[in-house]
Amino acid sequence: MSGAQGGTGTPGPLLAQPLRPPTPGRALAHIGLFLLGALIAIAGALVQAAWFPGGLLLALAGAVGAFLGGAYATRSRGGAMAPAAGWIVTVILLTTSRPEGDFLFGAGGGSYLFLFGGMALAVICATLGAVRQPRPGSARLGK
User: Fold this and answer.
1) Among residues 6, 47, 115, 119, which one has the fewest Cβ atoms lying within 10 Å of its Cβ?
2) What Rg do the C-alpha atoms of the chain give, in angstroms?
3) Could you report the per-residue pLDDT of 126-143, keeping only the tens digit for each?
4) Any idea what the Cα angle at residue 114 is, between residues 38 and 108, rounded to 5°?
5) Could you tell me if 67 and 121 are in contact, meaning their C-beta atoms sit under 8 angstroms apart?
């Protein structure tokens, strides 16, 4: 029986095991990363237009730092997606116009580069982020 518990008492592969709910610490870390992504989105929205093109690069670099930092801190792709989700939700909320006619983003190319570039970088960081590896000694790798 490949991949199942063949009655020997040995556990099957990692994918065959049921998912466990996240620990309170991991859930708190993801909530914190979500809020960090929201703060970076607000700061990036203000900086990207102020010092173009350096502000745009600084804002996107801050976003990438949060995305990859979250992935490496939690050692999972979910750690990259938590700040990315906070960033995207905040940026989308900042692009909506208010009843008074005010809005934070102008119609320039830098704003669109910040919006779409940040979303593309979020996907790239979540894809390339840290992937879970077996614990040391739990599997024979390369032997």
Assistant:
1) 6
2) 20
3) 887 666 555 666 555 565
4) 130
5) yes
